[in-house]
Specification:
alpha+beta, Immunoglobulin-like, elongated
C-alpha cells in the first residue's frame, strides 16, 4: 500500500480590484516631479491606463505615473483605469496639488435649536495636510469635553483635497450660540475664519413672536382709534363755538341797524325843519327887499347877494343867487 500525492493548480480568473490607497492627494512644489500610484490586482493582470480628467490622451500604462515639472497646468485630478477582459472596468481618482498655505472656504452661518445637537463645520483646503486645526468660542479654545457634550471631528472628503472639521455640541445651551473661530496651519502658513452659530426659530419661538407681533398691532389700532375720536371731538367742539359766535354777531348787527335807522329818521326830521325855516327866511328877506324897492329911489349900483344851504340827500350846497338893483 502506498501513498500518492498530487498537486493541482487552479487558475481562477477575476476582475480588477483596487487596493486601498494610503494617499489620494499628492502635494508637490512648483516645477518639481511627483509619482502617483494605482495598485490593482486581477487575473489575468489588469491593463492600466492613466488619463487626466477632461482629456482623452493616455499618459501612462504602468501602476505608477510620473508627472514631471508640475505647474498650474498639470495640477488637478488624474484617473487610473483598470480592466480585465471579460470583467467590468474600474477606475480610481487621485489628485495632484501644489503645496501652499491652507485656505478656508467662505464662512457661513449654521443654525441650531436649544436643547438639540448642533454642528459647526469648517471646510479646509490644505496641501500638505494641516498640522493643526484649532477652534475658539468667546476667545476660549474649544476642546473635546464629554462632560459638556462637546466633540470635534476632522475628516477628509473622499476624492477631494478638502478637510471638514466639525464641532459637535450635544444638548446645546443658549451660551453655545454665537461666533466661532476656525484656525488651520500647515508648514506653508495658516488661515482663519469666523463662523456663526445662530439659533433657529422653532415652533415655540415662532408662536411667541407671532403673539408679540399681534399684541403690538392691537395696541397700534387702539391708539389710532383714540386719536381719531379725539380729533373728531375737537372738530365738533370748534364747530359749536363758531356757530355760537355767528349767532351773537347776527343779533348785534340787527340791533345796530335798528339804532341807525332811528337816528337817521330823527336827523331827517331835524333837517327838514331847518330847511323850512331857511326857506321862510329867504322869502321874508325877498319880500322886505321888494317893499324897499318900491319906496326908495333906484340906486346907481347893484348888490349881489346869495344864501346857501346843504341838502341832506345829496350832501351838496344849494346856492340861491339873486341881484338887487
Amino acid at each position: 500500500v502506498g501513498t500518492n500525492k498530487a498537486t493541482h493548480t487552479l487558475n481562477v480568473s477575476f476582475g480588477p480590484i483596487l487596493k486601498p490607497h494610503n494617499e489620494t492627494v499628492y502635494g508637490v512644489d512648483v516645477n518639481r516631479d511627483v509619482r502617483i500610484k494605482c495598485e490593482v490586482e486581477g487575473n489575468p493582470k489588469p491593463d492600466i491606463a492613466w488619463l487626466m480628467l477632461g482629456q482623452t490622451n493616455v499618459l501612462g500604462t504602468d501602476g505608477e505615473l510620473l508627472v514631471k515639472d508640475v505647474t498650474e497646468k498639470k495640477i488637478g485630478k488624474y484617473i487610473c483605469r483598470a480592466s480585465v477582459k471579460g470583467f467590468p472596468e474600474i477606475s480610481s481618482q487621485l489628485i495632484v496639488r501644489l503645496n501652499g498655505p491652507p485656505q478656508i472656504e467662505d464662512p457661513y452661518i449654521h443654525y441650531g435649536l436649544i436643547g438639540e445637537t448642533v454642528r459647526i463645520g469648517c471646510y479646509i483646503n490644505s496641501v500638505p495636510k494641516p498640522s493643526q486645526i484649532v477652534w475658539h468660542h468667546n476667545r476660549q479654545i474649544v476642546n473635546i469635553d464629554s462632560n459638556r457634550g462637546v466633540n470635534i471631528i476632522d475628516e477628509r472628503i473622499p476624492g477631494e483635497s478638502t478637510i471638514l472639521s466639525t464641532v459637535v455640541i450635544y444638548n446645546a445651551k443658549l451660551s453655545d450660540f454665537g461666533e466661532y473661530n476656525c484656525t488651520v496651519r500647515n508648514r506653508f502658513g495658516f488661515d482663519n475664519r469666523v463662523i456663526i452659530l445662530a439659533e433657529k426659530i422653532g415652533f415655540t419661538t415662532l408662536v411667541t413672536f407671532a403673539s408679540l407681533l399681534l399684541s403690538i398691532l392691537v395696541v397700534i389700532v387702539l391708539i389710532t382709534i383714540v386719536v381719531i375720536l379725539c380729533l373728531r371731538h375737537r372738530h365738533m367742539k370748534k364747530a359749536v363755538k363758531l356757530k355760537k359766535k355767528g349767532s351773537l354777531y347776527s343779533s348785534s348787527d340787527r340791533t345796530s341797524s335798528d339804532t341807525s335807522d332811528e337816528t337817521l329818521v330823527e336827523s331827517d326830521v331835524s333837517t327838514a325843519g331847518t330847511t323850512d325855516d331857511t326857506d321862510a327866511g329867504i322869502h321874508v328877506e325877498m319880500q322886505s327887499i321888494t317893499s324897499s324897492e318900491m319906496s326908495a329911489p333906484a340906486p346907481h349900483h347893484s348888490r349881489r347877494s346869495h344864501r346857501s344851504h346843504r341838502s341832506r340827500n345829496t350832501g351838496t350846497d344849494i346856492v340861491l343867487d339873486y341881484e338887487l338893483e
